[in-house]
Amino acid sequence: MTTRWTAAILLALLLGVADGAAGATVRRYALIAGANEGSGDRPTLRFAVSDAERFAAVLRELGGVDERDAIVLEQPGVGTLEKALETLRERTEAVRREGSRAPRRTEFVFYYSGHADERGLLLGDDRYSYRTLRDRIDAVPADVRIVVLDACASGAITRLKGGRRSPAFLADESSEMRGHAFLTSSSADEAAQESEGIGGSFFTHYLLSGLRGAADVSGEGKVTLNEAYQFAFHETLGRTAETRGGAQHPAYDIQLSGTGDVVMTDLRQASAGLVLAQDLDGRFYVHNDREELVAELFKARGRRVELRLAPGTYEVRCERPGEAFLARAEVKEGATVVLEGTQMDPTTPEPTLRRGGPAPPRYAVSGRNRLEVRFGMWRTGEPSPPAGTVIEGVVGEEQYSGGAYARHLREDLALTLSVDNVTLEAGRSTSPTESFTGARTLTAVFAGVRWNPFADRVTPRAVKPYLAASLGPVIGESAGISSVAGGGVGSNKTLVTPGGHIGAGVDVHFGRSWGLSWSFGLSGGYNWMVDFSEPVRWDDNYSGFRLGVNVACSFGKAHTLPR
Questions:
Q1: Does 383 share its domain with 429?
Q2: Which of 19, 219, 236, 416 gives 20 to 30 Å between its CA and that of 127?
Q3: Cα of 133 vs its chain's centroid, Å
Q4: What pairs with residue 389 in β-bridges?
Q5: Count of other CB atoms within 10 angstroms of residue 551
Q6: Which strand ranges, in their side-by-side order, compose the sheet holding 345-347?
Q7: Do 374 and 458 belong to one domain?
């Protein structure tokens, strides 16, 4: 064998060994928890659980976390959280005992989204103290431990003894990194806020946008912990400055030794991507085909930004002072779509984007008011008129019409007030016992609730099913002249009795402009009532099934809620 061939073989072997060593770099474990329910009088959150699910998805897609190495908890109690921490401690310890087969570095990521106060996480009616949490996390034998807390007053965890402020991460990557990093969505005395407009909390929304590529300022195709935190910090602070909750300042406590930074996501792992070309500038909003806001960022001209996304159709909106542009992009598996300025079409700016907060999703209803006009059939089950009755006019059509107002407290819950009217008789009827000229009507005035048990946790959708229940008075009114056989003329009368409605329906939202959104709906249910003290027309009870359609208009601004 010639010397040249021998050298080539040795070089190939050396490169193969080096490549194999580089491949066995990091094994990352993750414990991710979301809790919407609070204790006492704390409001129920809308997006804590969905924020946790989205964070887990990004770690699996881009963060190198294997499905088997991640535990995701929904509404955990203290016992469940402790058990999960112990499980991951045991797994990490077992990997470290593998010796030469062990990865070069192990990392543990803990994420919590939910309620908290200055002393700890609020899990239902229990408090999990920050000191206990830090002790349990320190017990996990990982080389690097990263903690992300998205909750009110979560910055208090950075003030415990042993924590210290240090420069916000180092400049390059290294396998020698050791220690921990605590990132919190707010300082020790601030509320962490979530928004219907972005379908999540401000901090997690911008952190995930950064991890998907918006924070990759170096353009190397990797997002480091430093880049992700700096992006989330500046975006969260800037976008909460004018909210009702006030400016929100993310905080950190870093104790990392070594000569590098931690890579949080490798954008090259994703199967599809969307590139915002260098000639674009402004604030960009990227929605998927389910109207979910998956990424948001400000991009300066001259910078190329690559976002790693799941395959699908995306709507990209660009906002600049006084103008807006829109484009749609089809992102396919294994492909990267480049969006340039020539592909952006002018559109109408949305005023809400210029008031310090992202625009609400197109079909959001939380915090909004709704007016509807409706009509349909009310099967009153009224008996037939007496034999020999002669009718001139409208009688017993069992058609109703009316209107309703709704105030949406949350995306899934609304208070309602409705008025529905049925004309029992209008005109003249003559029977063997009575002659009546005038109108007899039935009016139901109900107050109640509407609940959507399938409300999307991430963002509102166009199709909104609901269950409805209401109570109120049913008014029977007779206005006209009644001549009874044997003499005498009847007078007008009004009868009132309790009643109610229970049913279900679905609304389909089909457009929004100038702050108004429009919808068409179908509904059905059962109207019931207590008997009137005397008959209105030929019966004293008009309980029955109801089927109707409606056209509605919604108006008003969505909520921004503290966590």
A1: yes
A2: 236
A3: 28
A4: none
A5: 13
A6: 293-299, 282-288, 312-320, 323-331, 345-347
A7: yes
| Chain centroid to CA 557 | 16
Cα–Cα–Cα angle for 549, 450, 37, rounded to 5 degrees:
150
Choosing from 247, 268, 289, the residue where a domain stops is 268
CATH number of the domain at 277, please.
2.60.40.10
The single residue listed with the structure tokens 């700890």 is 120
The amino acid sitting at 517 is S
pLDDT for residue 172 is more than 60 = no
- Farthest CA pair distance, the chain: 132
User: Which has the closest alpha carbon to 420: 529, 518, 508?
Assistant: 529
Residue with tokens 């949406």: 408
Q: How far apart are CA 61 and CA 68, in angstroms?
A: 13
> Token pair for residue 436?
């009546």
Of 89, 207, 65, 83, the closest CA to residue 149 belongs to: 207
Structural domain that includes position 333: 270-354
* Total residues found in the chain within this entry: 563
Comparing C-alpha atoms, which of 474, 485, 440, 491 is closest to residue 544? 474
CA distances from 241 to 215, 245, 296, 344, 529 (A): 21, 9, 17, 29, 52
CB atoms within 10 A of CB 91: 18
Task: Indicate whether 4 belongs to any domain.
Answer: no
Question: What's residue 443's pLDDT?
Answer: 94
Are 39 and 128 in contact, with CB atoms under 8 Å apart? no
Give strand pairing partners of 326: 317, 345
DSSP per-residue codes, 406-458: EEEEETTEEEEEEEEEEEEEEEEEE-SSEEEEEEEEEEEEEEEEEE-TT--SS
Per-residue confidence (pLDDT) for residue 30, from 0 to 100:
96
- 398 and 445 in contact (C-beta within 8 Å)? no
Judged against a pLDDT cut of 90, whether residue 276 lies above it is answered with yes
Q: Is the Cα torsion angle 311, 315, 319, 324 positive or negative in sign?
A: positive
Q: Is residue 8 part of a domain?
A: no
| Same domain assignment for residues 407 and 528 | yes
What span, in angstroms and rounded, lies between the C-alpha atoms of 36 and 57?
Answer: 19
